[in-house]
Task: inverse folding
């Protein structure tokens, strides 16, 4: 089987499987007549009315802004902390117990604390909440990426008098970049989850807030439409990230191909 044929079959399978699942949902709900599971056609109508027109600016845009800002802050903090921790054995011994402690903390347990500490349920609280949990995948992957760099390369650069900032910029960060990007992808998925969680419990706008109101008022069609939107947003954000990652790490794939 040629590479082109394999790619065509892979894309066809990626498209066909969701379509078959949606078709199965429509056929089952059409005959089941369940209140809890509306027909797919009903959900899509609600999706169109809610998210493509009336509520896009008031609820979808704020959610995307919170995801974007929280993700950006979390990634920046994760890389900024991960590089020095990865380079210093002393910092690793001092910091890893704290990192593991907070990484294992369930997000719902910290949501009330974030509201109390920031004294609001506004955007600042939600963005901070998202950023906090986005830090850890990037931080841990940055530490591992920095540690995986051959120490001989760093020592050689130091012996030739390369300044510390230049060593980090031209040697450490490029060497750790593949693992940093892997951590960023995990953090992006976490950002969407934390956005929904924060808006569900402490918000007056956003997709999570609409999901809460729909559930409380037993509007099951809009509730399922909100769930569909969350999945679509997660899928599209991941797709955009993969395109960026492919471009940013093009040199890495070329290097690995040459090595093989």
Result:
């Amino acid at each position: 089987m040629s590479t082109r044929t394999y790619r065509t079959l892979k894309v066809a399978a990626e498209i066909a499987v969701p379509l078959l699942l949606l078709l199965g949902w429509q056929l089952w709900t059409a005959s089941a007549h369940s209140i809890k599971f509306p027909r797919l056609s009903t959900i899509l109508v609600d999706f169109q009315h809610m998210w493509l027109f009336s509520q896009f600016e008031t609820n979808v845009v704020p959610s995307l802004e919170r995801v974007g800002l929280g993700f950006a802050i979390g990634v920046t903090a994760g890389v900024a902390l991960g590089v020095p921790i990865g380079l210093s054995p002393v910092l690793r011994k001092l910091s890893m117990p704290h990192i593991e402690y907070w990484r294992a903390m369930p997000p719902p347990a910290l949501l009330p604390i974030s509201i109390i500490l920031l004294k609001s349920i506004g955007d600042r609280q939600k963005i901070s909440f998202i950023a906090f949990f986005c830090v850890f995948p990037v931080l841990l992957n940055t530490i591992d990426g920095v540690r995986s760099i051959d120490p001989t390369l760093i020592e050689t650069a130091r012996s030739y008098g390369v300044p510390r900032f230049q060593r980090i910029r031209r040697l450490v960060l490029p060497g750790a970049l593949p693992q940093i990007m892997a951590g960023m992808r995990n953090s992006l998925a976490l950002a969407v989850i934390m956005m929904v969680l924060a808006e569900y419990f402490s918000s007056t706008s956003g997709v999570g807030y609409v999901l809460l109101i729909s559930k409380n008022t037993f509007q099951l069609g809009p509730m399922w439409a909100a769930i569909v939107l969350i999945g679509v947003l997660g899928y599209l954000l991941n797709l955009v990230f993969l395109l960026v990652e492919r471009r940013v790490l093009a040199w890495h794939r070329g290097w690995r191909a040459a090595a093989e």
Summary: The chain has one domain: 40-259. Residues 43 and 249 are 39 Å apart (CA to CA). The mean pLDDT is 84. The chain is about 85% helix and 0% strand.
